[in-house]
């Protein structure tokens, strides 16, 4: 309690006031007195005491009424009131009108002090709590406003980042001269559409537009004029397209439109609209005026088209034919295929190979790789084979050899599909015939260098092994020498991954290419296959013999295993044996045949015991 604490004492009997004042003296409070209800109300409103001791029985306004009025005023409602009364009946009435406590007469000093102290302490605590709450509220308000600001800043940052991201995406997918979609965007769009076409009936066509006289403008007026022409051209063609058409610049003077067409139309209707429009299109640059013409290739997006590359290649072929014949006009895929013998082959192969993938026309063949044991060796027989691919031509009832279709498959970017097919066919076979794999020492599979350039090809392979749960240590991949060198980085990466996985690698057709020691060191092959053209006649051709001999010596020095292919006669086999070659493959030992349980088992049984 402090001297700032005010207590109002109200009683119509001055003696009572004296007694109370006397009791409360040592509390160190300021005491105010009132001898009537009226005066009490006036002092209470003016001086705002911290506590009121109020007599009940007073002549003018009694204590209860005083209390009721004080409680009704906003400024005085919180002031605690202790009633001072001689009648115990008054106690409950006092509480009803808002009294905080009561003191009974005759007055007991200790009781008065205790009740007063209690009220004052309670009051002080309430005040403290209130100020604490006020502080808290201020703090909350401050924090809220800080948070609002931080939030706004964050939102701004997010928006800015989103804008940058959008901008980057835009730049990555748009051509900055014409603002059209670029090649990347086109590739994603076509790839997605092709996937959709595999499962839905969608009639769509790919148009490649090649401006015929673009170079004239570019060379005679400069590249600023050239860019302007491209922009105007793009704008005017855009005006002809519908909202669902996809328009992109392929680069240079080439554009592409992917359009959804009516039943029976293969994009020719739109191509015709574009050509007609171009007839009236004039490009003005300073005082010169140019007319334009274009060649348009239409390629229907059929189910046989499996990749963007294939579509682009087909369109390229058609434009090529168009350019050879004349300038300007619409060329359809079917027309081009008919007119050009040169390109007919590729176009035919494209659909044949894609059909073959879908119709299971590929076959797995195999050829044994023979082990030549050293005389004193009493080794258990070792069996190895190489898987070779064939294509069944149902129309002509013949087996087509890979010499015919690997080349076109590589040109058409379909080779990864073929390589995946043979890998899975081989793994599925040995998964079903684990008894045969058990007896095998190694199974070789050819992989094209075009496949290893595909970023996920190695993972595709490891996934297949995981799917069939077969030991990678029993499998070897053959890469040809020339291809491995052309793609040395891709090859190194690919081999590293699969070597760590446990697979083996053979460098195929070695000798005919240009692989130097340096390359052999860089690439982690563990086997070298001498190119068959040196082996086949090494018994009669001295230079070929010398070649084989030097390859064997080099391989020994590099600690690589040597395999000779095209071993066609016993004479050649003997020469190889004399040179220390331990593995031979050729018609002398085994002619390739279809990979079946029966055919392979027969060979394994036949040979059992032969080598010991
Ligand atoms: P390659 O890897 O050098 O396979 C050996 C080729 O020589 C096979 O021809 C085989 O039938 C043939 N051959 C085996 N022994 C003799 C013999 O004593 N004399 C002669 N003249 N030839 C023999 P094939 O099966 O026609 O395969 C040709 C090439 O096609 C293969 O050469 C390989 O580079 C490629 N190839 C075969 N299957 C696949 C495959 O599944 N994927 C890939 N990417 N390429 C494959
Ligand atoms: Ca091979
Ligand atoms: Ca070979």
TrEMBL record:
Residues 6-120 form the Response regulatory domain. Residues 346-606 form the EAL domain. Keywords: Coiled coil, Phosphoprotein. The keyword Protein biosynthesis does not apply. The modification 4-aspartylphosphate is found at residue 55. The keyword Phosphoprotein applies. PROSITE patterns: EAL, GGDEF, RESPONSE_REGULATORY. Residues 122-153 form a coiled coil. Residues 202-335 form the GGDEF domain. InterPro entries: CheY-like_superfamily (IPR011006), Cyclic-di-GMP_PDE-like (IPR050706), EAL_dom (IPR001633), EAL_sf (IPR035919), GGDEF_dom (IPR000160), Nucleotide_cyclase (IPR029787), Rev_trsase/Diguanyl_cyclase (IPR043128), Sig_transdc_resp-reg_receiver (IPR001789). Pfam families: EAL, GGDEF, Response_reg. SMART domains: EAL (SM00052), GGDEF (SM00267), REC (SM00448). This is Bifunctional diguanylate cyclase/phosphodiesterase.
